[in-house]
Design a protein that fits this description.
With 580 residues, this protein is mainly α. It contains 27 helices and eight strands. The radius of gyration is 26 Å and the shape is globular.
């Protein structure tokens, strides 16, 4: 019997060229860059407690910032076992295959893969005499592969020398909003949508720091220093006394609910049950981010007890969507928190219909969207009032989906949630609604009132993102800049923090997801200083003003839809194709 030679050991310190990384990704391997190391996460993806999508959206990218703020030191040390080599920094991000589509990573010729990037005679040594063709091959292999809005190296140089307007001109993005598109009646759906998207890109490029590598690297350096400062100040440590006071408030609301229920003031008791749900879910949010004990098992049990047992909502569903939301905030095709067609549209991207990488489902822009979306400014609050019913459905759909089972050693969380959700419906559905309340009119009134009270929470959740930009400025934009560009904080007095439950500091929270919410106000001061240093706008509005921002955005997109419908009618009447 012939002995099988052992596989040669992997040199974890060897320097991988960008083309080598590209080739590995083109072959289907999951390569993520962290702190200058190339991590191969194929063997970890189905064990990742944060879900598969959190990894898939980082493939080909330098995810150092995202990984550091989402994981504790113990986990960061474990990641070193997946290192297959090093890469040269700063790293030029590739577009993750999940975002770029199945044809974005064509096979790379060996002559390109093996050619040293800084060799002066690489073209001749490889047999390629056309220098331009070699440059083109390298550019295609190393740049953002599926980008119509990305920033090329040439544009990065121009943005430093000639200002941002030169970048806008070369990308056919108008410098002024008024020049964004010709009269709508001569545009096809695709052309009109593209014009609206380009306008938003122009606004983002104009209003935020330059996208050149030097500027964005400086922002990353400042963000790394800010992260260390937050750690040094102990802001990742939980204030358990604050949770003691929270528990008193939860108990008071639940006791008041029970008191009025026993007194047969059923509809009044429903108000306090709704307030109890609204308040206690803030603790589930903290536990979902491991912001209470920092221990995965303990915080998962706390989160499941609060969300599933007390509120009837799956913490697993919330984590699976929320983790993705944090990484790719406000990206129409990828962020499930803004995918609400045909009820709402916060981006013109939805006009062309999109396939959600989260739901693996196509959101088709159809006649229903043409009719409903123009009124979204008026349907916003009524739909928020009944949004909880949709969350019940999503919770059970999640637990029945493969996503709930793809958690490796955390497999037990699925069955814990099933048990807790079953208990919730046994107590609330059977014990309270059917056995305690006297008749059907009272039951219907109780359910509607208790659930409508929680609209406060649903407005709070959507407030920080629905009015913010959805444009993708390309692969060079830093994690910190994107989070601050797409997220708005809500300004309120400190004594009112209990009502918002930390959701008023969403921009701060997106920069530091695991910081306990009782420390976010202290972090806010540091974030303001960071924004002042880097020139990034810190968006912060009062609660009333924030609602106006959201309603204005809903109205703006609604007017785009009305124009689009008029455009379609004009083309139908005149027979014009719109292809000008």
């Amino acid at each position: 019997m012939t002995a099988i030679a052992p596989a040669p050991p992997v040199d974890r310190d060897r320097l991988l060229s960008p083309c080598e990384v590209y080739r590995l990704i083109a072959e289907g391997q999951l390569i993520v860059v962290h702190d200058g190391n190339a991590l191969k996460l194929d063997g970890w993806i189905d064990k990742h407690p944060g879900g598969r999508l959190a990894i898939l959206h980082m493939v080909g990218r330098d995810a150092t910032d995202e990984i550091n703020v989402y994981h504790f030191e113990k986990t960061l040390k474990v990641m070193k076992a997946y290192r297959i080599g090093r890469v040269q920094l700063p790293w030029t991000n590739l577009e993750p295959p999940i975002r770029a589509g199945p044809y974005a990573y064509p096979a790379v010729p060996e002559l390109v893969v093996d050619a040293p990037l800084d060799s002066d005679d690489s073209a001749s040594s490889s047999g390629m005499t056309d220098e331009d063709s070699l440059f083109s091959a390298r550019r295609d292999a190393l740049s953002w592969s599926n980008s119509s809005v990305g920033v090329s190296d040439t544009e990065q140089d121009l943005s430093k020398d000639d200002g941002e307007d030169s970048v806008l001109r070369r990308r056919n993005v108008p410098a002024k909003a008024a020049d964004a598109f010709p009269p709508a009646k001569i545009l096809s759906r695709a052309s009109y949508t593209a014009a609206m998207e380009q306008k938003e890109i122009a606004d983002g490029i104009r209003n935020y720091p330059s996208l050149d590598l030097e500027t964005q690297q400086a922002i990353r350096t400042e963000y790394e220093a800010l992260h260390k400062l937050v750690q040094e100040k102990g802001l990742y440590s939980c204030n358990y006394w604050a949770y003691g006071k929270e528990s008193i408030r939860y108990a008071a609301l639940f006791s008041t609910f029970i008191y009025f229920l026993r007194a047969e003031w059923y509809l009044t008791s429903a108000v306090f049950l709704g307030l109890f749900w609204q308040q206690i879910m803030f603790t589930a949010h903290d536990a979902g981010h491991r912001g209470i004990t920092g221990n995965f098992i303990v915080d998962t049990v706390i989160g499941a007890f609060v969300a599933d047992f007390c509120c009837g909502l799956s913490i697993g569903w919330w984590k699976s969507s929320h983790n993705v939301h944090h990484l790719i905030t406000n990206m129409p095709e990828h962020d499930p928190d803004i995918q609400n067609i045909p009820l709402f549209a916060t981006s013109p991207t939805y006009f062309k219909s999109i396939t959600s990488t989260f739901y693996n489902f196509q959101f088709v822009w159809d006649k229903a969207a043409d009719i409903v979306v123009p009124y979204q400014k008026y349907t916003y609050y009524p739909i928020m009032a009944v949004a909880r019913f949709n969350l019940y459905l999503l919770s059970w759909m999640h637990l029945g989906s493969p996503r709930a089972a793809q958690l490796g050693s955390a497999w037990w969380t699925r069955w814990l949630e099933v048990a807790f959700l079953s208990c919730y419906w046994a107590i609330f559905g059977y014990g309270l609604l059917l056995r305690t309340l006297p008749d059907w009119p009272t039951r219907v009134g109780f359910v509607l009132i208790s659930h409508m009270i929680t609209m406060i929470l649903h407005v709070q959740i959507t407030l920080s993102h629905w009015g913010m930009p959805t444009s993708d400025l390309g692969p060079t934009e830093s994690f910190a800049q994107r989070q601050l560009r797409t997220t708005m904080d809500v300004d309120c007095p400190e004594w009112l923090d209990f009502l918002h439950g930390g959701l008023q500091f969403q921009a701060v929270h997106h920069l530091f997801p695991s910081v306990p919410r009782h420390n976010l106000r202290k972090c806010q001061t540091l974030v303001r200083e960071f924004c002042s240093k880097t020139g990034i706008t810190y968006n912060c509005q009062g609660f009333v003003e924030g609602n106006k921002v959201v309603l204005s955005r809903l109205e703006e997109v609604a007017k785009m839809v009305e124009t689009l419908v008029q455009c379609q009618m004009h083309m139908a009447q005149t027979g014009e194709s719109g292809l000008h």
